[in-house]
Amino acid sequence: MTRSRLWAVTLPVLGAVLAVGLWWLLTAALHIDKFYVPSPADVVETFLRTPRFLIQETWVTLQRVLIGFGIAVAGGLAVAIVLAASPTVERMTMPVLAAVNAIPKVALAPLLLVWMGFGDAPKIVMVILVSFFPVVVSTMAGLTSTPIELRRLARSLKASWRQTFVKVRLPWALPQIFVGLKVATPLAIIGAVIGEVVNPDRGLGSVISGSGASNDTPLAFAALVLLAVLGVLLFYAVALVERLLVPWAQALRSEE
Amino acid sequence: MIEVSGAGRTFDGRRGRVEALTDVSLSVADGEFLTLIGRSGCGKSTLLSMIAGLLPPTTGSIAIDGVPVTSPRRDVAMVFQQPALLPWRTVEANVMLPAEISGLDRGDVRARAEGLLSQMGLLGFRKRLPHELSGGMQQRVSLCRALLQSPTVMLMDEPFSALDALTREELAVELQRIHLELGTTIVFVTHSIQEAVLLADRVAVLSDRPGRVREIVPIDIPRPRSFGFNAHLDQVASASARLHDLLMPLDKR
Question: What gap in Å lies between CA B197 and CA B221, rounded to an integer?
């Protein structure tokens, strides 16, 4: 047990170190100009030149991601619950939802600029647009997958719709909901960056967009690395919440 | 007293209408243990669902204590082939679910749940989650959950058929003890002749689709009975042979 716990920490770290090492080796061995691909050392150096600036921009992007993601999760859960409760509403709205989801979100970014101008709003809306649908789909899948014997049990106990929902269907759906949340987390970051690149003001996306104009590739890479770190942290944060909320699903999985 | 009079049920499937049960009439006295036996697809589970009020009959009617069954009743408990436990709830919380749904006082219920669990030898597992228990233990928990309703009628749909032979035997003996102790009316669906002879006061044999009552065989063997069948070998043998003949008619062999 302790041994596997130790591995659970060391293996991911080892993987990350190896990846960075490989990156370094390639840039050094192939003598790649740092204008094209900077080495890890160049990136760290760039970061250390303006650490406060980059941390601040990271914080701006993170805030947009968190607000948008929060709204997407709350809205997605609410919509999925309504859809799961009423097959009529589901049949009516599913095509519209699917159609909206099929629109390339990048294409909407200029429109958001027209509608909302600069500032946080269009970025947050972009985050919501990209991360909303996975939450809806996974929640619906979870809510409609209640096993037949549990449904019969609830009926035979004369449980009301609300009781069945709160005590059986929703807890049963939680592991599936978390699958959706884990898909949506990186999408939320991508959404924020799309918003910032298309309509730059602040945030890491704006940094990347600005570094292109000043030919500062190491700066773009520093921003990318920070985005990647952000993605990893958010993903593990969601996984941690999952662990706290549905420990039983974890246990069921590890038994198989 | 359960009265099934002329009950029938059809299902509209993709290949047209299927007649699952037709013109079933039988009655189960208070405190009686009736076993429904038949080959797969003969509609025995359908009949049980109809008595439970989960499925309305298309023809005929069903009444419990003179009241027509139109929806599930809280004094009728069901036990399914699967334990149907909620995987996120402890054993104890699973057993207490029926009381929670009907809004009973928690303190009282907890004491009763613990009493039931200790009778089943599960008291030490009350804080465990279902997946930590063996299949037989899980089914015991679901039996405790049914008993927590203080049911006057228990409807059991092949409750032991997913278990291994030894566990099955243990649980059948346990169920017999509960029945003798509480005098609950039980309708028990099975396809095991052995189980039927061990448990039943009467066995209703259903014919193949569309299911109808082919014959009702009384089992007059003194209780408590055991799978060892030490005392009444002749009676057990003749009852088993009779059921076997009814389920596997000579002309079909």
Answer: 9
Contact predicate B210/B43, CB 8 Å: yes
Residues with Cβ within 8 Å of B43's Cβ and at least 6 positions away in sequence, in order, are: B9, B20, B21, B206, B209, B210, B211
What's the Cα-to-Cα distance from A11 to each of A5, A8, A24, A228, A255, rounded to whole Å? 10, 6, 20, 18, 22
Tokens of A202: 């602040």
Of B73, B74, B131, the CB nearest to A255: B131
**B87 with A155: Cβ contact below 8 A:** no
Cα Rg of chain A, angstroms: 22
Question: What are the average pLDDT values for consecutive 10-residue runs of chain A, which has 256 residues?
Answer: 76 90 91 86 90 94 97 95 88 87 88 89 94 93 92 93 94 95 95 92 92 88 94 94 88 62
Does the distance separating the beta carbons of A251 and B71 come in below 8 Å? no
CA distance A127 to chain B (A): 33
* Mean pLDDT (chain A, rounded): 90
Does the CB of A256 have a partner CB in chain B at under 8 Å? no
> How many angstroms separate the CA atoms of B81 and B65, rounded?
26
Q: Which residues of A touch B73 (CB under 8 A)?
A: 158
Per-residue pLDDT reduced to its tens digit, B93-126 = 999 999 999 887 777 899 999 999 999 999 999 9
Using the beta-carbon criterion (under 8 Å), do B131 and A152 form an inter-chain contact? no
Contact B72 A157 (CB under 8 A): yes
Q: Out of A156, A168, A251, whose CB is closest to B86?
A: A168
Q: Which chain B residue's Cα is nearest to A147?
A: B84
Structural domains in chain B, sorted by start: 1-75+168-253 (3.40.50.300), 84-150 (no CATH)
CATH superfamily, domain at A37-255 = MetI-like (1.10.3720.10)
Interval A111-137: pLDDT, tens? 898 899 888 999 999 999 999 999 999
CA distances from A64 to A120, A203, B75 (A): 7, 9, 54
Cα separations (Å) of A230 from A186, A204, A206, B184?
9, 11, 16, 61
What are the boundaries of each domain within chain A? Answer: 1-31, 37-255
Between the alpha carbon of residue B58 and those of residues A17, A167, A254, B11, the distances in Å are 69, 32, 46, 9
pTM to 2 decimals? 0.84
